[in-house]
Amino acid sequence: MKLTLTLNGVRRTDEVAADTTLFSYLRDRGCLSVKCGCETSNCGLCTVWLEGKPVLSCSVPALRAQGKSVTTLEGLQEEAAQFGAYLADEGAEQCGYCSPGFVMNVLSMVRELDNPTDEEIKEYLAGNLCRCTGYQGQLRAIRRYLQEKGGAK
Amino acid sequence: MYTARNYVVAASPEEAWELNQKKANAILGGGCWLRLGRRRYDTLIDLSGLSLDEIRLEGDTISLGAMVTLRQVETSPLLRESFGDYFSRCTRHIVGVQFRNCATVGGSVAARFGFSDPVTALLPLGCQVELVKAGRIPLEQYAAMPYDRDVLTHIHIPLPKYGRPVYESVRNTQTDLPVLTCAVAREENGLAAALGGRSGRPSLLRGADRDGLVEQAMKLSYVDNLRAGADYRRHLAKVLLNRACAQLEGGEQL
Ligand SMILES: Cc1cc2nc3c(=O)[nH]c(=O)nc-3n(C[C@H](O)[C@H](O)[C@H](O)COP(=O)(O)OP(=O)(O)OC[C@H]3O[C@@H](n4cnc5c(N)ncnc54)[C@H](O)[C@@H]3O)c2cc1C
Ligand code: FES
Ligand code: FES
C-alpha cells in the first residue's frame, strides 16, 4: 500500500505492507537511531514524533502516518547533540542504549512544559526505561540544560 | 506482534461495522494492546478518518470520540473545567506520555480490562457508550456485557451535578498496571463507586454513604496474583474508598 508522509522535513512516498509498524518503516529508511527495546509497548526506546507529538513507533502502524509528519533523532541532530553534551557532562549514560528514545522525549517535554518541576519531569519521562542507571545523572543533565537554556520552550 | 494482509481506513462507521463482522478482522485503536498479541488478521480497520478524535461539549454532556487518546483525556481543558484533575489522575500513570499519545479511550473502554483505570473512572459517572449497531447504552451495561463485534464510536459523560468525583489508584511501581483502582461520585440519592483490579471487570457499587460502599466492597472477590494477594487488595479497597469519600465529603486529603 502507498504511504506518503514527511520524514524529517522531506516528503516521500513508499510502498508498505498493511502490518508494517512505523518503527520498521523508519529503520528501513535509514533512521537507525530508532530502536526497539521491548515487545510490550512500555520501554519508550522507539519514541519518535508524529505531528510533533512523541509516540511509540513500535505500536503505531506505519499507515497511521499517512499525510503526517514524522521526526526522528536524525531530524533533530543539532538539538540532540546540545542536550547530549549535558548528558555526557553528568556521566548520565552507561551503555547509552536508552538514549535515543530518552532524548526524543526530553526534547518534546521541553516544548510542552514551561519550567517543569522535578515531579513533572519525572512524570513526563516515566515511560523511558533505563536499565543501567538510577536516572539521577539524567535528571541533573535536564535541570542544567533547562537552566542554561533559560527555562523551557 | 500481529500480522495483517489489509489495512482499511473506514469511510463510515457502518463500513467499519460491516468489516468488523468478520472474525479475522479487527478494529485498530491505538494498537498498543493489539501489538502484544501474535494474531494473524485479515484486515485492520482504522477509524481515524471518522473525526472520532474530538472531545466536545454537547449540552450537559461531554462526548469523547473513540479515537481520542488517553493523553487528550488527561490534558483536555474541557474535562478539567468540569472535573478538575479527575481525568488526569486516572490516566497519568498509564505507562508514559508516548504511550498515552497512542492508546485510545475507545480501545481502552472496548477492551474492558479488569484493571482499567479509564473504565473504573467512567463507571460511576452515569456515562453512556455509543455503538454503531446497539446505539446508546449505559456504560454500566456495556461494561458487564460479553464481547461482541459492535464498534464503539463515542463515550458520553454527563457533567457532574453533585460535585466533582474522586479517583484513587495504587501501583507497586510507576508505569506498572494498577493493583487496585477506585472511583467515587455523588449521585442524587447517595454514592456510586467503581473498583477495578479486583477480579473480572471493574464493577459498580451504590450506597447511601461511605460505610454502605465499604460494606459492599468487602463482599466482593479479589484476585491473588503476582502483583498482590487477595487480602491486600480487599484491604486496599477499604482504604481507597475511605480516602476517596473523605475527599468528596470535605476536600480532605488523606
Ligand atoms: C504495557 C501496557 C501497560 C498498560 N497499563 C495500563 C494501566 O496501567 N492502566 C490502564 O487502564 N490500562 C493500561 N493498559 C491498557 C491501555 O491503556 C489501553 O487500554 C490499551 O492499549 C488499548 O488501547 P488501544 O487504543 O491501544 O487499543 P488497541 O490495542 O488498538 O485495541 C484494543 C482492543 O479493542 C478493540 N477496539 C479498539 N477500538 C475499538 C472500538 N472503537 N470499538 C470496538 N473495539 C475496539 C481492538 O480490536 C482490540 O481488541 C496498558 C497497556 C499496555 C500495553
Ligand atoms: S520498543 Fe519498547 S515501547 Fe516501543
Ligand atoms: S544507559 Fe544503559 S539502558 Fe540506559
Keywords summarizing the entry:
heterodimer; A: 153 residues; alpha+beta; Ubiquitin-like (UB roll); DNA polymerase, domain 1; 2 domains; 5-stranded mixed sheet; B: 254 residues; Uridine Diphospho-n-acetylenolpyruvylglucosamine Reductase, domain 3; Enolase-like, domain 1; 3 domains; 5-stranded antiparallel sheet; 4-stranded antiparallel sheet; 10 helices; globular; binds flavin-adenine dinucleotide; binds FE2/S2 (inorganic) cluster
Provide an overview of this structure.
The complex is a heterodimer of chains A (153) and B (254). Chain A is an alpha+beta fold and 153 residues long. Chain A has helices spanning 22-28, 77-89, 99-112, 118-124, 136-149; strands at residues 2-7, 10-15, 47-50, 53-56, 69-71. In chain A, helix 2 (77-89) crosses helix 5 (136-149). Chain A starts with a strand and ends with a helix. Chain B folds into three domains: 3-46, no CATH class; 55-158, Uridine Diphospho-n-acetylenolpyruvylglucosamine Reductase, domain 3; 166-248, CO dehydrogenase flavoprotein, C-terminal domain (Enolase-like, domain 1). Helices cover 31% and strands 26% of the residues of chain B. Chain B is built from ten helices and twelve strands. The A-B interface holds A 1, 18-19, 21, 39-42, 44, 47, 50, 53-56, 58-61, 63-64, 66, 105, 108-109, 123-128 and B 1-7, 9, 28, 30-33, 35-36, 41, 43-44, 46, 48, 71, 92-93, 95-99, 101-102, 174-175. Bound molecules: flavin-adenine dinucleotide and FE2/S2 (inorganic) cluster (2 copies). Flavin-adenine dinucleotide sits between chains B (26-34, 36, 47, 66, 94-95, 103-104, 106-108, 110-111, 115-118, 151-152, 177-178) and A (40-42).
